[in-house]
Each structure stands twice: as structure tokens, then as C-alpha cells.
Design brief:
The protein is built from 15 helices and 32 strands. It is an alpha/beta fold and about 575 residues long.
Length: about 575
């Protein structure tokens, strides 16, 4: 049988592709590869979309707590964090300064649930499930950050390697700002390997390369290093770390050792036997640029300070002193410009102890142990300072647990007069959100009595407590008319949060109105627009600016029709649906 030329050509092409596929399959791969596991909650959101509603008021729970009208609104969202992050992708995309997340560590113990089942150490897909779980949430979290925003994820040895690769993949290796080791368990925890485990890790990543690490207050030990003093204040002597060739520590003109490009002469100086140091008679000649110093044994050394730094130091700030080897070295007077400094990559203050400053503090706050392994309050305070120096920063924690992040934000505001705001997301499994997270924030804002019966003054701060609910729209990619109308009627609280107008002042079959922060937000529900002019006129009379969300079947149907200096027009529900469609495409 003779093959048709076209079929012959096709078979040849298939053969070539098979050959290429075999070559590719043999190539070594660099990166993270895992068996992607479907998550029930993700699949459910293809037919049902999350919205927010204010938590119902009941004994012990007041969903709206205002202690200071001058402060911003802090948000607590009860529900699965996949739902919460989905909602926030509509309300807060690109608005968050810092994200802190303390996910399940996947230790093999039954401490987290995937698809309604505990994942234990015998699960063959334990790591794949964890990676699938984390990937979706980290992608959603990334879009919430500002361009200069920073995310911090804590983890231990079980998933540090995989999490680093996953973060590199999502945020970019070039945006990895650093990994910090935190001594969170000074007593140590016995491990199978025999080591006493006393640390965990904190991975810092920027949204883009615009992100910059903030500074931390110096410890008392660091401040005490500035023991010497002159007319300009305290200082410490700092070595420029240059290497010298000298026959005598008292030689008049000691010189730098041979460099890779030239020699370099130390300045004229006068030896002071009492101080065991030299007084400079002239400033060093730094006209020659030196790159790599070579020591007397021919080894390449490094400069701690650039020649530009040497030039910038004033004559009166420089001196030549004997180093440990009794050779003269150039020193300068290092002064403390302020009480802040860039953080080290090892955090080992006693305040970082999770038991002392986490568990004990929480028990003192809420009276009983209802949450395992809460974070140290002070580790969270320093984490926030490192992520953002902005006193008006918005801080998100989507594994909020006991609410330590919210507590840290309030503590910082009280300490430095800031107006930071937090968004906490947690489920209510075993009553965590109601009995631990909410209860803790309520007490630290209003004040409480600790277990010793002592009254602890409240930190102040406002809180709104929401929960997520699902609206059945049949299919997120092909929404029915009924689904669009249903979503429009139920999206009010979510839109109010987006616009920063939290107080509902009116709701009817035709519209819903929220006010706050000197602004008004209105949502017009109906396809029938006969009463829309009435609402527009009402908004025109309001003080401050207004935004009007008008129900429409498509996009931009009414923006040109209703124009006003005071009223901004937006569509509803299509922009919400676009966000959820994009999430489902991820």
C-alpha cells in the first residue's frame, strides 16, 4: 500500500516530535515539580463566589467596635482564607503594604486539613498537597501587595526548601530579600535526628525590586558599644580593615601592603604612647583607587569600606591605632546616627520566645489555653517594622490564628503614634475566630484583667468583624442573569469595604447606601433605571465625594451618562466577576 504524500509527511512530523519529547524527558530540570492536587474549595468557587457579610451580633460578640474615631478600621474576616483572599483581590488589590503568614508547617502531625481530611506523615502526597494549597494562596496574596510591598512567611525545616523554591517561582528569586533564623524556642525541642530544635525561619520577599527592608531599634547591648566620648558625643573606634606591611608599630610612615594595582601610603602621624595610638598629621591620600588588597602571604582580602567612605570621613574623625597584631590600622570614630539599624539575619532576643511571649501572653489575655503555638508578640512587632517603615501601613495576615499580628499592629500604634491598620483572616474551626482571634483583639483594644486579676489598659483601635459567604451563580465563566442580580444584591458589604465606607445608612429594594471617611457609596440594584435620577440627586446633596455602583449587564454602560464632579460611577457586578474569573484561570 502506498501512503499518500500528505500522510507520509504527517507521520514524519509525528516521529520527529516523539524524538524531541524523548530528549526533553531526559533533560535535568531545575525548579520545583510536584503532583498538583485538586482542592475541593477551589473547585467549589467555580460555581459559587465568596462575598462578605457583617458578623451577626450575639452574646460576647459585637461585630463593630469603635474606640477611636480618629483611627482607621481594622478588619477581621472569618472563613477559609482562600475565600477571604478572593474577596480581597476585589477590595484590596495593590493596596497592602505588608503580609505576614504563618501557614501549617506540614510536620506530619495531624495539624492541618486538606479536602476535609487531616494530612499526616503517612500521606504519600503530603508535600504535593501542601504545595498545591500554598501556591494558590500565595498567588492571590501577591496581587494584594503594593509595588514596594513585602511578604514574610514563617516555616521550619520540614518545608523550608520547598517553600523557598515556590516563593522564587511566584515572587522571583531576584525579589528574595533574605531569610532570617528566629530563635523561637530557647528550651529546644527534641527531634528524631537528635538535635534540640530551637529555631524557625522567616522568608522575606518583595513584590518587586522597589521593596526595601526597614530598620529595627538597636538593643541596649548595641547602644552600650559607644563607650568613648568627645565634644561631639559618644562614639566607638571602627577599623577600615586595611592590611599593612610594617617592621615596627612606631614607624613614621607605615604603608599599605602591595595591592593589585598600586601601593598606598598612610598619612604622616604622631605616636601617642599613652593612648597606644597615632595622631594624624594629614588626611590619607586616596587619589589612587584600590580594588583588591593582597596580604603579605599573597592572599586576596576584601575592603570593608570603599575609598569613597574613607574620603568622606572628616580629619578629626580619623586616627591610627594598634590592631590585635600590634600593627597600626586606620580607625575612625563611628557614631550612632540614631537608635535604628538594619536587621541581622539571626534573631535571638529572649522576647522572641514563642512560649514566654506567645503562649503565656495569650493565656494571660483570654484566660485559658485555646490555641497551640501562638507567635511571640515581639517577634511580630519587629517583623512588621522590617516589612514597612510606614506608620500608616496596611498589614495583612491570612493565617491569623490567635491574632498576634493584629495585637502587634495595635501595640506599635500605641508606641509610636502610628495609624497602621490590619486585616486578619482565619477560619472558625473549633471556635478559633470567635473565641481566640476576636476575643484577643477585643480585649487588647478595650482593656482587660489578666489571670492575676490586674487591670491592663486597652490599646485602642477599631474593629469590624466580617464572615465570608458563598453566592451560587452556577458558573463563574458563564453567569446566569439570576446569578448577576443575586450577586449585586449581596455585594454591598464587600463594596463598602473596597471604598472605605463602612456604615450602612439606608437599604431598600432599589438601592443601598454606605457612609464613612467623609465619603458616600451607593449601589443601585435594578435593571429598571426609573428611580436612578432620584438616587443621583440624593448623592449630589451629600457632603464630600460619592461613588455610585449601577447594575448593568456589561461594562461601562452608564459612566458617560451620569457624569458629575461629586459622583464617580462604577459598574456592578461585572468587575467582581472579572476578578473571580481571573482567579479561576490561575
Amino acid at each position: 500500500m502506498t501512503l499518500d504524500p500528505k500522510n507520509k509527511e504527517l507521520l514524519q512530523k509525528i516521529s520527529e516530535l516523539e524524538s524531541e519529547l524523548k530528549k526533553l524527558s531526559k533533560q535535568k530540570k531545575y525548579g520545583l515539580v510536584w503532583e498538583n492536587k485538586e482542592e475541593d474549595i477551589v473547585n467549589e468557587c467555580k460555581q459559587k463566589v465568596p462575598i462578605l457579610s457583617l458578623k451577626e451580633k450575639k452574646k460576647g460578640i459585637d461585630p463593630v467596635s469603635i474606640t477611636d474615631e480618629t483611627q482607621g478600621e481594622n478588619i477581621l474576616i472569618e472563613g477559609d482564607n482562600y475565600h477571604s483572599l478572593s474577596v480581597l483581590n476585589y477590595t484590596h488589590a495593590g493596596k497592602v503594604d505588608a503580609i505576614y503568614a504563618d501557614p501549617p508547617y506540614n510536620t506530619g502531625a495531624k495539624n492541618w486539613v486538606y479536602n476535609n481530611d487531616y494530612v499526616d506523615g503517612n500521606d504519600a502526597f503530603r508535600h504535593s498537597k501542601w504545595l498545591s494549597f500554598m501556591e494558590r494562596r500565595l498567588i492571590l496574596a501577591k496581587s494584594l501587595l503594593k509595588d514596594d510591598g513585602i511578604i514574610l512567611i514563617t516555616i521550619d525545616d520540614y518545608e523550608i526548601a520547598t517553600l523557598t523554591l515556590l516563593m522564587n517561582e511566584i515572587f522571583g528569586e531576584e525579589n528574595h530579600l533574605g531569610t532570617v533564623v528566629i530563635k523561637n524556642n530557647p528550651q529546644g525541642r527534641s527531634s528524631v535526628s537528635g538535635f534540640q530544635v530551637s529555631h524557625e525561619y522567616a522568608l522575606f520577599y518583595g513584590r518587586t525590586q522597589k521593596a526595601k527592608i526597614g530598620r529595627l531599634p538597636r538593643s541596649q547591648e548595641q547602644i552600650d558599644r559607644y563607650k568613648e566620648s568627645d565634644s561631639e558625643g559618644p562614639f566607638e573606634w571602627r577599623n577600615f580593615r586595611a592590611q599593612y606591611s610594617t617592621e615596627s608599630p612606631k614607624m613614621k610612615y607605615p604603608i599599605f601592603v602591595k595591592m593589585d594595582c598600586s601601593s598606598f601610603r598612610l598619612p604622616k602621624m604622631k605616636w601617642d604612647a599613652e593612648k597606644q595610638s597615632y595622631d594624624l598629621l594629614e588626611k590619607p591620600d586616596v587619589s589612587e583607587r584600590i580594588s583588591i588588597p593582597i596580604d603579605p602571604n599573597g592572599r586576596e582580602r576584601t575592603w570593608k569600606w570603599s575609598m569613597e567612605t574613607v574620603e568622606s570621613v572628616k580629619d578629626t574623625e580619623m586616627g591610627v591605632r594598634l590592631d590585635r597584631d600590634k600593627n597600626p590600622s586606620v580607625y575612625y570614630k563611628g557614631r550612632m546616627k540614631d537608635e535604628w539599624m538594619l536587621p541581622f539575619t539571626i534573631w535571638d532576643k529572649s522576647d522572641y520566645s514563642a512560649s514566654a511571649m506567645g503562649a503565656n501572653l495569650l493565656t494571660s489575655l483570654i484566660g485559658s489555653k485555646k490555641f497551640d503555638y501562638p507567635k511571640s508578640l515581639y517577634a511580630l512587632i519587629d517583623s512588621i517594622l522590617v516589612m514597612s517603615e510606614d506608620k500608616n501601613a496596611t498589614v495583612l495576615d491570612f493565617f491569623a490564628g490567635s491574632g498576634t499580628t493584629g495585637h502587634a499592629v495595635l501595640e506599635l500604634n500605641k508606641k509610636d503614634g502610628g495609624n497602621r491598620k490590619f486585616i486578619l483572616c482565619t477560619n472558625n474551626e473549633n471556635g478559633i475566630c470567635e473565641e481566640v482571634t476576636y476575643e484577643r483583639i477585643k480585649r487588647v483594644t478595650r482593656g482587660y484583667k489578666n489571670k492575676e486579676g490586674e487591670t491592663v489598659e486597652g490599646l485602642g483601635g477599631n474593629l469590624r468583624y466580617y464572615k465570608t459567604e458563598l453566592v451560587d451563580i452556577e458558573s463563574v465563566h458563564k453567569v446566569s442573569d439570576d446569578g448577576r442580580i443575586k450577586l449585586t444584591y449581596q455585594a454591598g458589604e464587600m463594596i463598602g469595604l473596597r471604598e472605605g465606607t463602612f456604615n450602612e445608612v439606608e437599604k431598600s429594594d432599589w438601592w443601598q447606601i454606605f457612609e464613612g471617611n467623609g465619603k458616600t457609596t451607593a449601589i443601585y440594584f435594578k435593571e429598571d433605571k426609573t428611580r436612578l435620577p432620584v438616587l443621583v440627586e440624593l448623592l449630589e446633596k451629600k457632603r464630600g465625594s460619592s461613588v455610585l455602583y449601577i447594575f448593568s449587564w456589561g461594562k461601562n454602560e452608564y459612566k458617560s451618562e451620569y457624569t458629575s464632579v461629586k459622583v464617580r460611577v462604577e459598574d456592578i457586578p461585572e468587575p467582581i466577576l472579572e476578578v473571580y474569573k481571573e482567579i479561576n484561570r490561575i
